[in-house]
Amino acid sequence: MNAVREWLKRASSVAILTGAGVSAESGVPTFRGNNGLWRQRRAEDLATPDAFARDPQLVWEWYNWRRAVLAEAKPNPGHYALAELEKRSSNFTLITQNVDGLHELAGSDNVLRLHGSIWRVRCLECGQERFDRRIPFPEIPPKCECGGMLRPGVVWFGEALPQDVWLAAEKAARSADLFLVVGTSAVVYPAAGLAQIAKSSGARVVEINIAETQLSDQIDEFLQGPSGELLPQLIA
Ligand code: OAD
Q: Which numbered atom of ligand 1 lies nearest the CA of 78?
């Protein structure tokens, strides 16, 4: 921990990648592991264009449930520590795979959302995308004013990431002196590849997770523990 604190102090450019684990202490279920299942289904079986085409009702019920859980969730000390770090740093990029909006609620200003937002919807007919916090929706699947079916404003497996967001994330990983990977199983690409990009561009890479991942033995330091405890310690 002390070495990482020193690196953080000396870094002129810091980039962070977060995953579902950073929100776990806010009561938000992660995707993988035993708590990750919803009605015995895995995220990979629900978060796909095929699953939505086959059964939009089922996929929307899952998102509706997640939106209801998230509406009650509050940022935890890990989210607040990252928001504080942004304020203190001149060159700081927060990249998240999370769609929950908790970083923004904690006060992080510039969040690169690789996988979109669960609080946005997009019409399959007219293409309009907008913010939508209705819980529950009056009907499932919800409809646009034009009559078309809405879909969640998130990125599904097999879909491309928003190009501008990805390019900004890649640039931040390339130019970072310190790259911190927090609460992600690091198995979903291209997001997981950002740590390798940072490493091969010369950054120190540090991981915070309650359990080892495939990244853990390829990086400079693995800090084991809950991010809601370790992140505040790191910036203290
Ligand atoms: P996962 O559910 O795959 O991984 C969560 C990670 O957080 C695991 O490595 C846990 O060990 C760790 N973890 C759990 N609690 C923690 C805590 N309190 N502190 C620190 N770490 C903790 O979630 P992601 O890696 O975010 O994509 O999943 C990546 C993507 O797969 C998601 O964005 C989503 C999902 O399916 C799409 O929907 C496209």
A: 19
Q: Where are the domains of the chain?
A: 2-28+75-115+160-235, 34-72+123-154
**pTM of the predicted model, to two decimals?**
0.97
Instruction: Band the pLDDT of 27: cuts 50, 70, 90.
Output: very high
Mean pLDDT for all residues in the chain? 96
Ligand 1 atom nearest 157 alpha carbon: 39
79 has catalytic annotation: no
Query: What CATH architecture does domain 2-28+75-115+160-235 belong to?
Result: 3-Layer(aba) Sandwich (3.40)
Query: Which tens digits make up the pLDDT trace of 105-116?
Result: 999 999 999 999
First to last CA, the chain: 11
Q: How many CB atoms lie within 10 A of CB 8?
A: 19
